[in-house]
Amino acid sequence: MDKKIIGRKEKIALPELGLTLVWAKVDTGAYTSSIHAENIQVKEIDGKSILSFQVLMEGHESFTGKWLSFENFSAKKVKNSFGSAEYRYMIQTTIRIAGEEFISEFTLSDRSSMRNSILLGRKTLKKRFLVDVDKVNLAKPFRIKI
User: Fold this and answer.
1) Which residue has the higher pLDDT, 1 or 29?
2) pLDDT at 129
3) pTM of this prediction?
4) pLDDT digits (tens, 9 = 90+) for 66-107
5) What single string gives the DSSP state of each residue in the chain?
6) Residue whose C-alpha is closest to residue 53's, from 109, 103, 6
7) Number of domains in the chain
8) Is residue 59 part of a domain?
9) In a domain, 146, yes or no
10) pLDDT digits (tens, 9 = 90+) for 19-58
11) Measuring CA to CA, how many Å separate 128 from each of 4, 19, 41?
């Protein structure tokens, strides 16, 4: 199978989160993908742990403030962009990029000081895509019409 070439930034969809055509930074230096989340909390409801959070995306103001909840989640120790280890909650969700759709893992983190709310790491890209760091939005011709 030939791998599709994507750029350093791509528009993606995370349909289970209600996000379509949002910019994501492609970062081959990061292992895990990450999404900006705020007000992260875990609550016990009917004997089950439920992870709830808000995803705030620039350019998606209609989505801002909506709460998302996941029953299936985990916590993972990751190194942040400053090299310090921290624990982050991790979810699995469907991603659409370059006409491909698959399940990928995303850690939840505060990316408010970053230029991009979503970062795609090697684990998501591996065996699927090659990255041309000089280009952006190369996946557009493959995009699934939504």
Assistant:
1) 29
2) 96
3) 0.89
4) 889 999 999 999 887 777 888 999 999 999 999 999 999 999
5) -PPEEEESEEEEEEGGGTEEEEEEEE-TT-SSEEEE-EEEEEEEETTEEEEEEE---TT-TTTTT-EEEESS-EEEEEE-TTS-EEEEEEEEEEEEETTEEEEEEEEEE--TTSS-SEEE-HHHHTTTEEEETT-S-TTGGGPPP-
6) 109
7) 1
8) yes
9) no
10) 888 999 999 999 999 999 999 999 999 999 999 999 877 6
11) 7, 21, 33
51, 69, 102, 127 from 10: Cα distances, Å? 28, 26, 16, 17
Closest CA to 122 of 131, 114, 113: 131
Which domain does 76 fall in, by range? 9-128
The encoded tokens of residue 95 equal 């991603």
In a domain, 3, yes or no: no
In single-letter form, the type of residue at position 89 comes to Y
CA separation for the pair 75, 129 (Å, rounded): 27
Of 144, 57, 145, 55, the residue nearest 101 (C-alpha): 144
Going by DSSP bridges, is the β-strand pair 48-54/67-70 parallel, antiparallel, or unpaired? Answer: antiparallel
